[in-house]
Amino acid sequence: MNDDKHIELETKIAFLEQNINDLSDVLYEQQQALDALQQNFTQMAGKLRDNEAAQAPATDSKPPHY
Fold this sequence. Notes:
With 66 residues, the protein is mainly alpha-helical. The protein is built from one helix and no strands.
């Protein structure tokens, strides 16, 4: 009976270790995706700022009717 309990505990530990490894892999993949999204966001924000700056009218220029 003691051996049965020992085997049961080892089985549970092996199962939990596998779950931890699986969750670790998923977490790593999610972090990679998050890093890529953050990089894309930063690039897009920079492009948007550049476009807005290029389209902004000059504040010291006279309107066309002068």
